[in-house]
Amino acid sequence: MSASDQSSSAGPGRPKLVAKKVVAKPQREGDGAVVRRSVGRSELKYLDPFLLLDEFAVSPPAGFPDHPHRGFETVTYMLQGAFTHQDFAGHKGTIRTGDVQWMTAGRGIIHSEMPAGEGTQRGLQLWINLASRDKMIEPRYQELLCEDIPRAEEDGVEVRVIAGEAMGVRSPVYTRTPTMYLDFSMQPGAVLHQSIPQSWNSFAYIIEGEGVFGSINSSPVSAHHILVLGPGDGLSVWNKSSTPVRFVLIGGEPLNEPLAQHGPFVMNTQAEIEQTVEDYHYCKNGFEMARYWRSQS
Ligand code: FJE
Ligand code: FE
Description:
Layout: E1 18-23, E2 26-29, E3 33-37, E4 50-58, E5 64-69, E6 72-80, E7 82-87, E8 92-96, E9 100-104, E10 109-115, E11 121-129, E12 140-144, E13 151-154, E14 157-163, E15 165-166, E16 169-170, E17 179-186, E18 191-195, E19 201-208, E20 210-213, E21 221-222, E22 225-229, E23 234-238, E24 245-252, E25 260-262, E26 265-267, H1 270-282
Antiparallel strand pairs: 1-22, 2-3, 3-4, 4-11, 5-10, 6-9, 6-11, 7-8, 7-10, 9-12, 13-14, 14-17, 15-16, 17-24, 18-23, 19-22, 19-24, 20-21, 20-23, 25-26
The structure holds ligand FJE and fe (iii) ion (FE).
Fe (iii) ion is lined by residues 64, 67, 69, 74, 111, 113.
């Protein structure tokens, strides 16, 4: 293993400890949808570059009907079931369990996101801020089917690499704001050491089961909690329970830029927000196609 291998060694550096733990309680969003918001709730407003993490659970006819975005990226990762996306430029697609849609809204997207099956459709949606220089870029999609997401497995630890690199495998996703997004499943008794760049902000969000994070003697943390990680260069996790634990580990390079947010518009200054509200209202500067468009939902 080379010194630069980030896959399985915590190295000689300093391990990250849990700096903050917050529970994501269910709340209503969109049209009758339920989300557990972790990043983006009042206790954790902005974890630069991350604006929001929602664990959503939606059954038809609920969903997220026609709404705009500008100035950031949304990453939708399906945990169970299917979601259909339609945008004002004619882009349409359905993602299913294990698939990812990485959407760079840039200067503007208007779309609907609706459940595509009966019963509860579950997933995670992450909002990643864009640097000032990237906020007005052309919209772009990167769609990854379940089978295209690189996977690795070793000693009771399985990882699916949605962005970045882990356990010797690398994701094909281009992250305009440098980001890592790893989905780990650990069997009872398994141990993990994952490196994370020193200067990045990072967190773990537990999807299922319970694990011990950061230091071996800390209390186990259960599903629907977010753990914000402190300084250091890697994370250790132990599964001391009798069932598997599943969590996502997400990190990103902070932008360190001013933030001005108005709902789904995220810019740097209040003047840019006012311009965006005007652009949306008058269907210009990226919102031209909004004039006559409605989704078919
Ligand atoms: C949004 C309210 C919303 N979390 N998780 C206000 F509900 C939304 C929104 C979502 C969303 C969509 C999916 Cl598929 C999953 C979500 C919020 O669409 F963008 C604003 N501004
Ligand atoms: Fe959206």
